[in-house]
Specification:
three-stranded antiparallel β-sheet; 10 helices; 280 residues
């Protein structure tokens, strides 16, 4: 209606809606996910911090990104994390607290059974996928510290062809959701095999709020015969930025490896923070 302000639903809130679909509505849930992906505002530039090693050199030469198994630095990453309110299969929803486990042997047994269920499901979900991690910023000091070997590595700038990725039904490119309440996003019927693919996607984009500074996006790929043989995805490299501590000898080696069209920059420590300067 004229004069009314229609507030668009956020990406986080739309992802919460996926848990509302019943198992028999799984196709509708996938359609909703596709709609969410198509409405995403993909950053024009996306970055990947890398240490200097043979794997990074391989990615630069071949212009591809390795999709790794989800063995990430966060112990809760790509896992179902529950406060006990997620249903155990088709059984009644469990309400288990630390206090009840201390007072009640039955509650403690239920808790062990519940955690075993989640651990088995976590392992199954993690076996299904490979991921590559990116970020929206190339001037993130903690990221340079953690993922580029204390500013001695590089930060690679990529272009993401969303249309190409969306057309591949086994590959998804999504921003990470930072939350300390994972239960808002998980479907209740956890042990349904039909939901494992959707559940894998949800698990892959959830991280604890402590990691919010990363502003992370993830390329999530489901394993198939082709991915097992060739666990890479081709991405266009726009630029490479060297850290403030990257050795000059390494800069010279990388200059000799890459296409002249790829722009080169270096980070410098200024009074205002990190600043990127183009290399001539």
């Amino acid at each position: 209606m004229k004069g009314m302000n229609i507030k668009m639903m956020s990406y986080e809130d739309e992802m919460k809606l996926l848990k509302e679909y019943e198992t028999y509505e799984i196709e509708k849930a996938y359609e909703k996910l596709e709609e969410i992906i198509k409405n995403l505002k993909i950053p024009k530039k996306i970055y990947r911090y890398r240490p200097l090693n043979i794997f990074t050199i391989d990615e630069l030469i071949n212009k591809h990104v390795f999709l790794s198994s989800p063995d990430i630095d966060d112990i809760f990453d790509t896992n179902i994390v529950s406060n006990g309110e997620i249903a155990e299969g088709e059984l009644a929803i469990l309400h288990i607290t630390k206090e009840s486990r201390n007072r009640n042997n039955k509650a403690n047994e239920d808790y062990k059974s519940f955690t075993n269920l989640l651990e088995n499901l976590n392992n199954k979900l993690r076996e299904n996928i490979r991921i590559a991690c990116f970020t929206e910023s190339n001037v993130n000091v903690p990221m340079w510290q953690y993922y580029a070997e204390r500013h001695t590595g590089i930060c690679i700038e990529y272009s993401i062809n969303l249309e190409k990725l969306v057309n591949n039904k086994n590959i998804f490119f999504l921003p990470v959701i930072y939350t300390d309440d994972y239960n808002q996003y998980f479907p209740c019927n956890l042990v349904r095999d039909e939901k494992n693919k959707l559940l894998s996607i949800i698990c892959s984009v959830l991280k604890m709020g402590d990691w919010k500074f990363e502003k992370e996006w993830r390329l999530i790929a489901f394993k198939d015969a082709n991915l097992e043989k060739n666990p890479y995805v081709n991405l266009e490299i726009n630029a490479i930025c060297f850290g403030i501590e990257t050795p000059q000898s390494i800069k010279n080696v990388i200059k000799g490896l890459i296409n002249e069209k790829i722009l080169l920059y270096e980070m410098k420590k200024e009074l205002t923070g990190l600043e990127m300067h183009e290399l001539r």
